Amino acid sequence: MSVIEASEVRYAYPDGTLALDGVDLAIERGDRVALLGPNGAGKSTLLQLLGGLLDPDGGTVRYFGTDQPPGEVRDRVSVCTQNPADYLFNPTVREDVEYGPAQLDVPPAEADERVDRLADRLGLEGLLDKPPFRLSGGEKRRAALASALATEPDVLLLDEPVSNVDAANRRAILDLLDELAAEGVTLVVSTPDTELAPHVADRVVLLDTDGTIVRDGPARAVLTDTGLLERCDLVPPQVVELFSRLDESDPPLTVAGAVERLE
After folding, report:
1. Rounded to whole angstroms, how far apart are CA atoms 59 and 25?
2. pLDDT averaged over the chain?
3. What is the structure's pLDDT at 150?
4. What DSSP line would sit under 129-170, residue for residue?
5. Most buried of the four, 39, 48, 50, 248, by CB within 10 Å?
6. How many helices (H) and strands (E) does the chain have?
7. Domains of the chain
């Protein structure tokens, strides 16, 4: 069943610039999808439309096979935007993580349990009573992610979740996304990074700067199509480029895959 279905979605920015033009996209339960494209391709805009943060100028977005408005599924669909400040606006991290459950009238005792569980999972135990502005960039990312997860959503939409974070925070976030996928959470990640895409997605939706989807398919098929990626102003994954130059017809997508192949 489609958890989110966009049909003929069109969106233009206030200055009239067309961001998305007739996009059709179905996100299925349990999918791990990367919205991939160069800067200006409308990835973040599409993510916000899928999450109900923006209303389309044309077309429709449906949730869980119904015509429920976005406000009625906010406990099931959560968006973690590129800017952690969108989630971190209370005096303390704890209050930020509690904010979502409070809007859904989750009993305080249950909300506290969720906060403690997420703090343990994301390594935020010593940060809950700190003001968000005192956190490092990576800590802010993890705190924002905790806030997005506090409603216990079925679908998590993330915009560039590991941009501008150090290696340790990147690894912690990617490990958590793997765990969430294993638990059945549907994941949609917006990114311009072809190196990241195989770590977060089994399926890649490739957008171009004309506001259209040019390819939607398995990650391997899209990320090894070096000609198509280059036409969309994207650099193919380095491992793919290396093995392609060695005339490998089925190159690995990651360093770990390359090591396994070479061994």
Report:
1. 11
2. 92
3. 94
4. TS-GGGS-HHHHHHHHHHHHHTT--SEEEEESTTTT--HHHH
5. 50
6. 10, 9
7. 2-76+153-218 (3.40.50.300), 85-151 (no CATH)
